[in-house]
Amino acid sequence: MSSSNVKKVALAYSGGLDTSVILKWLEETYGCEVVTFTADLGQGEEVEPARAKAQAMGVKEIYIDDLREEFARDFVFPMFRANAIYEGEYLLGTSIARPLIAKRLIEIANETGADAIAHGATGKGNDQVRFELGAYALRPDIRVIAPWREWDLTSRETLLAYAEKHGIPIEMKRGKASPYSMDANLLHISYEGGILEDPWAEPEEDMWRWSVSPENAPDQPTYVELTYERGDIVAIDGERLTPAAVLAKLNQLGGANGIGRLDIVENRYVGMKSRGCYETPGGTIMLKAHRAIESLTLDREVAHLKDELMPRYASLIYTGYWWSPERRMLQQMIDASQAPVNGVVRVKLYKGNVSVAGRKSESNSLFDMNIATFEDDRGAYNQKDAEGFIKLNALRLRIAGRKGASFI
Amino acid sequence: MSSSNVKKVALAYSGGLDTSVILKWLEETYGCEVVTFTADLGQGEEVEPARAKAQAMGVKEIYIDDLREEFARDFVFPMFRANAIYEGEYLLGTSIARPLIAKRLIEIANETGADAIAHGATGKGNDQVRFELGAYALRPDIRVIAPWREWDLTSRETLLAYAEKHGIPIEMKRGKASPYSMDANLLHISYEGGILEDPWAEPEEDMWRWSVSPENAPDQPTYVELTYERGDIVAIDGERLTPAAVLAKLNQLGGANGIGRLDIVENRYVGMKSRGCYETPGGTIMLKAHRAIESLTLDREVAHLKDELMPRYASLIYTGYWWSPERRMLQQMIDASQAPVNGVVRVKLYKGNVSVAGRKSESNSLFDMNIATFEDDRGAYNQKDAEGFIKLNALRLRIAGRKGASFI
Amino acid sequence: MSSSNVKKVALAYSGGLDTSVILKWLEETYGCEVVTFTADLGQGEEVEPARAKAQAMGVKEIYIDDLREEFARDFVFPMFRANAIYEGEYLLGTSIARPLIAKRLIEIANETGADAIAHGATGKGNDQVRFELGAYALRPDIRVIAPWREWDLTSRETLLAYAEKHGIPIEMKRGKASPYSMDANLLHISYEGGILEDPWAEPEEDMWRWSVSPENAPDQPTYVELTYERGDIVAIDGERLTPAAVLAKLNQLGGANGIGRLDIVENRYVGMKSRGCYETPGGTIMLKAHRAIESLTLDREVAHLKDELMPRYASLIYTGYWWSPERRMLQQMIDASQAPVNGVVRVKLYKGNVSVAGRKSESNSLFDMNIATFEDDRGAYNQKDAEGFIKLNALRLRIAGRKGASFI
Amino acid sequence: MSSSNVKKVALAYSGGLDTSVILKWLEETYGCEVVTFTADLGQGEEVEPARAKAQAMGVKEIYIDDLREEFARDFVFPMFRANAIYEGEYLLGTSIARPLIAKRLIEIANETGADAIAHGATGKGNDQVRFELGAYALRPDIRVIAPWREWDLTSRETLLAYAEKHGIPIEMKRGKASPYSMDANLLHISYEGGILEDPWAEPEEDMWRWSVSPENAPDQPTYVELTYERGDIVAIDGERLTPAAVLAKLNQLGGANGIGRLDIVENRYVGMKSRGCYETPGGTIMLKAHRAIESLTLDREVAHLKDELMPRYASLIYTGYWWSPERRMLQQMIDASQAPVNGVVRVKLYKGNVSVAGRKSESNSLFDMNIATFEDDRGAYNQKDAEGFIKLNALRLRIAGRKGASFI
Questions:
Q1: Are strands C273-279 and D143-145 parallel, antiparallel or unpaired?
Q2: What value does the mean pLDDT of chain B take?
Q3: Residue C279: inside a domain, yes or no?
Q4: What gap in Å lies between CA A198 and CA A200, rounded to an integer?
Q5: Which residues does the annotation say bind L-aspartate (chains A, B, C, D) (predicted)?
Q6: Number of H helices, E strands in chain B
Q7: Cα–Cα distances in angstroms (integers) from residue A51 to residues A121, B137, C105, D329, D361, in the given order
């Protein structure tokens, strides 16, 4: 693709070494202006230093946005209404942040008259797909520049040499450099690379950053009450909180109780298996509690339909199709299902365990003690109905049996 | 239905009060002979006392079967190949035992010339459905007698009075009587009724029988290595074990480490919600470990297809359709998928947590370190391929965007 | 069930012999008052005679409703948005009328203070289920009386004798009585029974009532243009029509061209297979045309998701779950998908064939001639992108192949 | 990609202009030897002329294979067991031939020591994907050359100029050249391009090659009896035929009766919509007849599960994943389901219509006239069972209704 006609690029800029090198490389390679965009998604690091760095590198248009509420409210919460888990384990912490970054990058490109966007994701991962599918959906003719797929700075050494040559400061992170590739936001922190590239190797305890180990968690359990409205948590222990505050609070509670660590091999969209470790303290609590409030308030067949569609919904988010009509279509169905999902769930947090200690819903409980009871139900349920129910459900099996269908 | 023409009934007989009353009631009501069938499914109670009781009540044909290996090998293991969970939580411990009992009951009816079977399940639950669908599928013209749907002994008092009147011994279980309705087998033990009928009430610690609480579990983790062949565990820590021995061993390890407790509200097939508590120590370990070995050895799309069909497969087992052609059809597909599921999973057990500490497969690992690596891959993967991959996946979104489909 | 406490029954009353006998039988058996409800659903027979009959039998509250527009607009049209077909063939003509009758029956019961409803469906069919599930969903404590499941008038002879004894006029339909059990409404007419009970027997030509045979249809094709808005036909050949008028017009056009006959064996919800013949002239045209307009305006993945969920949606309607939360949830998703389904389809009708002769959509076509063309596309599509697309889609297959997965 | 190291290429060679140019271009561009492979898949043209042409162009290793039986038996027949249709309309005639060509191409590459394969599919279509996914799955390290994605002969003129320059004979097809891009095999013939690029334009009558128009078909219907064994047609009108002979015979019968024309807009895997016309005379009959024999012999839930999975199975074939583990997994399930699909279907062919005139199965019919009958069934079915069946199926709806869930 010709590099001739790029005038201005909106770059997803973290302030770190890699994206600083990209910034310079874009200017050099494309002779273009660069607009930087740095988002606070709750990753737990200051974003303001990115402004100073961008300024030092001569950037004129610098965007620093606090997107935590939007992230929690419009991305994380809708996803949890679906009980989304990828491949039975992964809570999609990285995946769900990408569409928001893509959207903001396009908005900034539109505002600043940029004709391209750029990002620092590699050509092997899912993130490039998530960024770019989002960008193309939101602005079909946008030019996308993915330096890792283009340049020849393919080793750590060449990258550092480039930085040195161009006067880009190579700060070491506090303490010793992590051997892992990490990504964090309000929902989770992830680790890849290093010894994790051997799926038989157990990660060392000091890799984990957001949670104490179950071993080091308190010896006393913590009980928490979560109030749900239309499928979303709106209060913790009776205190109303914004979505971002809910996530922050649950991360704190979960992390302190050793909750939310995960170590998996997953299937990337680009076709390879990769090993990843994740800490999702708040999300782990949210999934368990959401299922509990749904168990009380959701119709059986609605719940089962949601369960059958969930893997596909989760895959759509994992593979970067948040901004697709099929994800939206599923979301409309999921959101509609949540109207009766109101009530309170009491969870017990203890050394890595989240257990449900109670669930109630004044307005929407479908649990009918009079019918379910083992005691005399005074006619609420006629046990004789069961005979006809079974007989007709068995009819096709009986007809087949008589015709000789054999099982034993 | 006329009671005139029943000559001999094969009864699922536990030896307890309820089924002893049923035994007598059948003889009285139907003027028929009763054959008793008592199975050792690993419930942890002796089955021989049932023989003595049946003899004392004058039964001539008494079947006492040790079905533990058949149960583990032909029912539990195939189900775990599917990663089956009902409604996101329940490991189907009761559900999976019923089709075996139904099958054996029909076999015994066939052997003894019985023209009917009887069971002690109530008219409100799932078990009646599971027993009867199985029976009808395996012998379409069998007569089924479900005393709880027929008689007027609907309260504890009337039942006890009937027992006393007919000289049926009312032994109390060891210690004080449990306030819960329980069911146990090699896979799990369940609790219903009593204070559990209030979904807001947390069960008391002394309800649980198979596991210590996480609080009381050892302060040191236990590591275990599980060897898989074609999706089944065949060895623990290198020692080859039969399926039943695998389950027993994992129950012991899981129970000692506080693993496998569950407290849920579930949707019964007969249309009501009910509260149940379950202990499934070994099964909880098996599910986690099976997903881990699959994550390494199963193709992505095969795994996703399994995940999408799993809820339906689990529902089929929950609702009693084990002996149906659609369950068999799904099973054939699931079993076929397991050919490459070979290798070893190392799990860490600690105070209620099961975590995967490693997974490997010499013969079938699809994890390719050369491709996945963050380091230089020497051309194993061409990052430039990603551009075309993304571009064509985005094409439909771009066309729609140009035509004005709007998201923001 | 005790018959003591029924005071007033709302009866779905056709005015024919069967429901007239039911009317009398209800009064006699339950000592209750009967309210009759007769609906014009487009069955093609006058409904006013039912009023005279009901009056003659002494009924005081008589409801005669023209429900054709409501039926077409709120039931038939939403169903066709889903491209619903049961078991690959059946357009659900009977199924979709039942929930409307159930709803109106409950409304009338509510208005007249009736404590029960009654219908003339037998205990072997699907219609009893559809009526009653609807009634229970809309008024949970309604009493339902299904005489065919209760009485002993199980043969034609006993029924006629009862009618004679109670002075119920036994009018013969015009011409000789049909040997078939029939049901008709604006969407279709159905035939069951008689020689159809042999699945090897071909129905005689004179059974069919709504369409000429393809053999007798005109030798010249008829072309029609159908205008769609949000998935619904709003105009035919440029003339705006109401939903009921659309159906009526397409029935006329289809019937005249020998379109819409169907002869199948289907699986009833109550567990048996049954043979049915159907004429659905307008519906057959609608299905073909709706797929055509969707093919131009719907995103690929949205269309595929709809296709995968369609069989379940169709089953829900077939089995009587229109008034269920899961059907509503699916409907919300389907309706949302139809926003871009606008445009015109030109169909050719000829001797039983419906073929699409053209489709266009000014506002929403996603067909991009510049990209799809076999001619030079001037860079609209970069063919080189396909290489990366294929390479990454093949990656998992290649890795597996290298590990020895074998196909040939 | 460097062109340096290709020594021998196995080329899918039709003998036509395009692949002859490719043959020469490969030799020139890669300095490699070319092996040609020409298959008789029933496209209706002689394959021997391709041998002469290849010889004339100096090819030393020439493969001419009659694959008609393998194609019908191992590809078309298995696909029809699934009732596969893509996007509600397309019978996958082109899609299903590609995996066989890919397989044979790899076999020939293996036999001749070729290190690459080449094909003549463009970079815009599905066929490149189907060829290449198959090739990579069957020989992961194969080099694939797709000249249309590489060269600069992008217009008809440059192609002809190249041919002339290299002495490649430019024979005109018999009669005037077709304005359409066509593909044919035993299952179908397809048309794309030309005026079809306008979805509003109706194709001209003289485009169609395999069938008479319904207008020109005989005025008398043709009846045919198809005998099924395990889901496959094994005899027509009592005469046992091989799979290829079955297809050929049904094509002849269907084509003569104006059956199997289709005109659609479809969604390609590479992201665009395209217009295509198809003639599939035999396949259209097979789909209708297969559903009919299944309707009699397949369990309801098995049939429904097949219907729900069918769209995904069809997509897998359409997008080129025949040689994938997920297609194989689905196929195992589908094939297993066909064990009872035995019997005879009688179809009526008349001016474009295929209708079922009868179906029977001595060994496997699940249609039970005694139960289904409208006449007195002498107790085969107890209508009272329906009450309990409905009551329990309604229970969740009633509970929800009492809690205030509202529909009207």
A1: unpaired
A2: 94
A3: yes
A4: 5
A5: 122, 126-127
A6: 14, 14
A7: 21, 71, 69, 53, 78
One domain for residues B137 and B208: no
What CA–CA distance (Å, rounded) separates B201 from B182? 18
CB-count exposure of residue A4 (10 Å: 0-12, 13-18, 19+): exposed
Cβ contacts of C337 on chain A, cutoff 8 Å: 325, 329
Q: Are residues B111 and B200 in the same domain?
A: no
Residue B209 backbone phi and psi in degrees, to 5: -115, -25
Alpha carbon A28 to chain centroid, angstroms: 35
Claim to verify: residue C135 and residue C66 sit in the same structural domain: yes
Q: Do A340 and D391 touch (CB under 8 A)?
A: no
Same domain, C158 and C262: no
Please, which chains are in contact with D (at least 3 CB pairs closer than 8 A)? A, B, C
- What chain B residue is nearest to C386 in terms of C-alpha separation? B388
- Give D9's strand partners: D34, D116
Verify whether the Cβ–Cβ distance C366 to B396 is below 8 Å: yes
Check B336 against D332: CB less than 8 A apart.
Answer: yes
Same-domain check for residues B29 and B128: yes
Report the gap between the CA of B391 and the closest CA in chain C (Å): 7
pTM (predicted TM-score):
0.97
| CATH label of the domain that carries residue B45 | 3.40.50.620
CB of A324 less than 8 A from some CB of C: yes
- Closest chain D residue to B302, measured at CA: D326
| Residue B161 located in a structural domain | yes
- Chain A residues 266-305 with a CB less than 8 Å from chain C: 267, 270-272, 299, 301-302, 305
Q: Are residues C140 and C226 in the same domain?
A: no
Indicate the residue of A300, A368, A407 with minimum beta-carbon distance to B323.
A407
Which chain C residue lies closest to A396 (C-alpha atoms)?
C271
Position D227 in a domain: yes
Pairs of residues, one from chain A and one from chain D, whose beta carbons lie less than 8 Å apart: 62
Nearest by CB: C271 against A326, A330, A395? A395
Work out the minimum CA distance from A311 to partner chain D, whole angstroms: 15
- In this complex, which chains have at least 3 CB pairs below 8 Å with chain C? A, B, D
Q: What is the DSSP string of A33-87?
A: EEEEEEEESS-SS-SHHHHHHHHHTT-S-EEEEE-HHHHIIIIIHHHHHTT--BT
List the structure tokens of B10: 């094969």
Rounded distance between C-alpha atoms, residue D378 and residue C195, angstroms: 19
Regarding whether D110 and D50 lie in a shared domain, the answer is: yes
Give the chain B residue whose CA is nearest to the CA of D125.
B392
Provide the residue range defining the domain that includes B282. 190-296+340-360
Per-10-residue mean pLDDT of chain D, 408 residues long, equals 77 95 97 98 93 96 98 98 98 98 98 98 96 97 96 88 91 66 96 95 96 98 98 98 98 98 98 97 98 98 98 98 97 96 98 98 94 77 95 96 74
Contact in structure between B195 and B203 (CB atoms under 8 Å): yes
Instruction: For A317, list phi and psi in degrees, rounded to 5.
Output: -70, -40
Q: How confident is the model at residue C156 (pLDDT cuts 50, 70, 90)?
A: confident
Indicate yes or no: CB of C311 within 8 angstroms of CB of D307: yes
Q: Could you tell me if D313 and D120 are in contact, meaning their C-beta atoms sit under 8 angstroms apart? A: no
Question: Does D386 sit within 8 Å of A388, measured CB to CB?
Answer: yes
Give the count of domains, chain D.
2
Sequence-separated (6 or more) residues with CB below 8 Å from residue B33: B7, B8, B9, B27, B60, B61
Label residue B292 exposed, middle or buried (CB < 10 Å: 0-12, 13-18, 19+): buried
Q: Domain containing A352 — which CATH number? A: 3.90.1260.10
Q: How many beta-carbon pairs below 8 A join chains A and C?
A: 70
> Is D159 a domain residue?
yes
> Same domain for A156 and A227?
no
Measured distance between the N- and C-terminal CA atoms of chain A, rounded to whole angstroms: 65
